[in-house]
Amino acid sequence: QVQLVESGGGVVQPGRSLRLSCSASGFTFSSHAMHWVRQAPGKGLEWMGLISYDGSERYYADSVKGRFTMSRDNSKNTLYLQMNSLRAEDTAVYFCAGSAGMQAGCEYWGQGTLVTVSS
Amino acid sequence: QSVLTQPPSVSEAPGQRVTISCSGSSSNIGNNAVNWYQQLPGKAPKLLIYYDDLLPSGVSDRFSGSKSGTSASLAISGLQSEDEADYYCAAWDDSLIGPVFGGGTKLTVL
């Protein structure tokens, strides 16, 4: 069955960095665009970024542009999110999600990993 | 504020029908497909409707989607207690070059 498993979350101090991973199985990872979507405690969903199936295109929300970088390794069926210069407002559950096309709905979702930015 | 506007909450009795609205603009809903997600408490979101009105495999046909101009709606008929969840609309935004979400609507089944 389809599985997306995020890892790498935890508590980090403001200004520090963190790298999240998302391991995929049960579907053709290399044919799917991948997204990161976050949800702050008690808040709604916020799209963070998108990477095309082959990694050639990447788009980011303004709130993280220049600080967060998405990458993927299709040989390892893994998606990454490098988060630098973290701020308190980046505290959220981070979900990875997959879609058949960049503008298509996200049909696959991970369970999320919590990132807490606090001193 | 979210780019797409949804009512914060709706409620209805079991067995009844409820609709959730989603308002956007020409750069998103007016020019691109709308997707709807259901998020049960403590769970990851689940794709409920895609390309405005299509149901993914396994989703109950009690759910339906529609779109007109720069607005979209999600309808749920025959409400059940298990439908209590947060519902989000989303659409690609040509100006922001990425998908945008609505603020979410909490459905309470009375």
Strand content of chain A: over 45%
Q: Helix/strand-derived class of chain A?
A: mainly beta
Specify the structural class of chain B: mainly beta
- Quaternary state reads heterodimer
List segments of chain A where confidence is low: pLDDT < 50 over at least 5 consecutive residues: none
The radius of gyration of chain B is 13 Å
- Biggest chain pair interface: A-B, 24 and 27 residues
Largest sheet of chain B: 6 strands, mixed
User: Averaged pLDDT of chain B, please?
Assistant: 96
Strand elements of chain A, count: 11
Largest sheet of chain A: 7 strands, mixed
Helix content of chain A: under 10%
Structure report:
- The complex is a heterodimer of chains A (119) and B (110).
- By secondary structure, chain A is an all-beta fold.
- Chain A is built from no helices and 11 strands.
- Chain A has strands at residues 3-7, 10-12, 18-25, 33-39, 45-51, 58-60, 68-73, 78-83, 92-99, 106-109, 113-117.
- In chain A, strands 2, 4, 5, 6, 9, 10 and 11 form a 7-stranded mixed β-sheet that branches. A 4-stranded antiparallel β-sheet of chain A has the order 1-3-8-7, with no helix packed on it.
- The relative contact order of chain A is 0.31.
- The model of chain A has no long low-confidence stretch (mean pLDDT 96).
- Chain B is mainly beta.
- Chain B has strands at residues 9-12, 18-23, 34-39, 46-49, 63-68, 71-76, 85-93, 98-101, 105-109.
- In chain B, a hairpin with a 2-residue loop joins β5 and β6.
- The radius of gyration of chain B is 13 Å and the shape is globular.
- The model of chain B has no long low-confidence stretch (mean pLDDT 96).
- The A-B interface holds A 35, 37, 44-47, 49-50, 59-62, 95, 97, 102-107, 109-112 and B 2, 32-33, 35, 37, 39, 44-47, 49-51, 56, 86, 88, 90, 92, 96-104.
